Amino acid sequence: MMNVEDLHAEYVTDINGVKKSVILPLSDVYELLEDLEDLASVAERKDEPTISHEQVVEDLKKNGFF
C-alpha cells in the first residue's frame, strides 16, 4: 500500500499560497486506484467466515497443490 510520503505530488496554489489542487504522476494514480480496489474487496468480504492456516494447507494438500 502506498504511503503519502511516497507520492510525487505537485501542488497548485492560489495567490495566497493555499493549496487548491494536486498533480500526481499517472503511475501513482494507478497505484492508488489499485489500493482502493483492494480495500473495497476487503470491505466486501469482512463478514465472510475465516479458516485457519492449517485448514488451508490441508485443503491444498488434498487437492494436490502443496
SSE class: alpha+beta
Q: What's the overall average pLDDT, rounded?
A: 94
Total number of distinct structural domains: 1
Q: Give the termini separation.
A: 28 Å
Number of strands: 2
**Count of DSSP H/I helices:** 2
Query: Any low-confidence stretches, pLDDT <50, length ≥5?
Result: none
Question: What is the 3D shape?
Answer: elongated
Rg over CA atoms, rounded to whole Å, is: 21 Å
Report on the structure:
With 66 residues, the protein is of the alpha+beta class. It has one domain. Helix content is 44%, strand content 14%. Strands 1-2 form a two-stranded antiparallel ribbon. The longest helix has 19 residues, at 26-44. The protein starts with 9 loop residues before the first strand and ends with a helix.
Walk me through the topology:
Blueprint: E1 10-13, E2 19-23, H1 26-44, H2 53-62
Antiparallel strand pairs: 1-2
What features would you highlight for this structure?
66 residues, alpha+beta, two-stranded antiparallel ribbon, 2 strands
Summary?
With 66 residues, this protein is of the alpha+beta class.
